[in-house]
Write a structure and sequence with these properties.
InterPro entries: GH, GH_1_N_CS, Glyco_hydro_1, Glyco_hydro_1_AS. By secondary structure, this protein is α/β, with parallel strands linked by helices. It is about 40% helix and about 15% strand. It is built from 22 helices and 18 strands. Bound molecules: 4-nitrophenyl beta-D-glucopyranoside.
Amino acid sequence: MKLGLLRDKCRKKPMEGVKVNLARTTRRFSAHTIDEYEYIELPRSFEMNAGCARVSAQHTKFPEGFIFGVATAAHQIEGAWNVSGKGENVWDRFTHTQPEMVADLTNGDVAVDSYNRYLEDVEALEYLGVDFYRLSLSWARILPNGRIDEINPDGLRYYHALLDALAEKNIKPLVTLFHWDLPQKLQDLGGWANPELVDYFYDYSDLCFREFGDKIKSWITFNEPYEICEDAYGDILKAPGLNSHGVGNYLCSNTLLKAHAEAYHLYDQIYRPKQGGNIMISINSIWYEPSDPNNEEQVTLAETANQFKFGWFAHPIFTEEGGYPAQMVENVARQSEMEGLARSRLQQFNDYWIQRIKGTSDYLGINHYTTFLVTGPGVDPTAKSPSWLKDIGAVTTMEVGGDSASTWLRVYPSGFANLLRWCKRNYNDPIIFITENGFSDRGTLEDYGRISYYNDYLSEILNVIYNDDVNVIGYTAWTLMDNFEWRAGFSERFGFYYVNITDPNLPRTPKLSVEYFKQLIANRELPQDDRFKEPSLKAREDLHVDFDRVLNELSKPNARELARLGNHACPLRTLKFRSVNFGPFSLPLPQDASIRFNLGPGSQLQILSVTFERLRGAIFRSAATYLPLFKHIRQ
Ligand code: PNW
């Protein structure tokens, strides 16, 4: 039985006798057609629910006017932490007083020394051919103690020099005012938990708009408010690591959203009329999906999780209604009551602030990397009490998609498309600007994993632009060069350029992805050249899987047993085979490969990923990438 599963014409009309769960299949596959692999043979009554394949994208060409850039952040690249008048910031304090908090004991003292090597970095940007460069200003470099009463002229000089160098190459700056490096003096006053910070941020923004506004036409107020409030105030994952879970995080969001709104209005009323630029906020998303899309409870909980994560900051700014999402307000109030508190730990804004915050972003800036799955109701085993995570009331898992070097980053491109469609629906079809997206490995020049990630995620952007009319106008890759990846130090590398940090000259060496991204920008089209494909993959295209046999085996007791064990280890009912043979499956895969299946209800089978042990540590691939291996699927 043959089924042209991924052909448009067949997608809507499966061949008779073959039961395909189209809702699920098209959801997963919507991004791609498999032109080269026309037919996938499936046994009768087999429901397939696999990852999507990187073969040939459905769309490859970006629309007219779509722009590309790369991003960095001051503290991650500049170094020069205490020279030329820069004040101490929270990351300086955090890494100096608790060096063990960083995986490889590195810090931002020198980082990749971009303070001194910025001209070299501008050349790298020029080589890539980017339309714009997203950078952030170091508040403490400009205002050493955070306050406007002491301005550091050298700080202003540095940013002017950088902006001039960019202008000379015709690279437009997209500038973030706050990318996590709060002046320590302001942290001493309570940081974002202190409502007075609204005024300090106003003064700082005012100075930046006035000083740099002729050179900067695109601004971002805050980078990733969730990470600021939850990771740094609610947890210990980012500096200052207050670990005030369920309390400090919500105090932070109140201040931060007001500070954002005030900076927006200032720009809008005073500076925009003369300078004519735009201003937005960049919100990070972990996109939550139900582990089983047919499970109503999981679907509802995933929606709640998305409101808690993305909606926490997007709802007050981008909806008609304004304020925090109703579900969030309700959940935290209920939990607070159960904790015996007189008021909710999350205070809803009053009418004045609801109105003041609404509509304060020209574009919806999205940072996106990954997707998690929701498996059911309850308290996540990792949740503290009280906490944001406990307030959600859902159990989640990262057992989805392919690996990266970061535990939190799973490669799952279709989640990106779902997030973008969700944003279109929830926020009244906003203009969307992707302000970050990227992939980590341990540092390799032949970074096929990164190329594959960009290819697959960008392909999803094209799909939602053309198929769903989602208004995405720009894309920013994270990041120009390997840099100080916060608590991961240099152990996780996101850069296009490799930086050897053991060499005092900190040389930047282009990885293969530089050529990929350069070609993409030059042609405004996803490169499909062979040279960007992992060589060992090309050689293995004759692999096949005996699905019939797999299904057969699945019904046998030992397979059930294995599934149960898999269940125990990972709630997704994922079977992990990392050994030489594949248990009852006897798959003719090479000996160094492992394959992960998701056994859904009714024997639905999802190929999550195939991993080659030999490549682990260097290259990580998603299911998406490996599906072409199953070219000749036999009955
Ligand atoms: C972003 N998540 O952080 C930051 O803006 C960058 O400074 C950072 O280097 C980059 O992404 C890579 O980590 C994130 O859990 C932190 O989804 C966490 C998540 C996403 C982005």
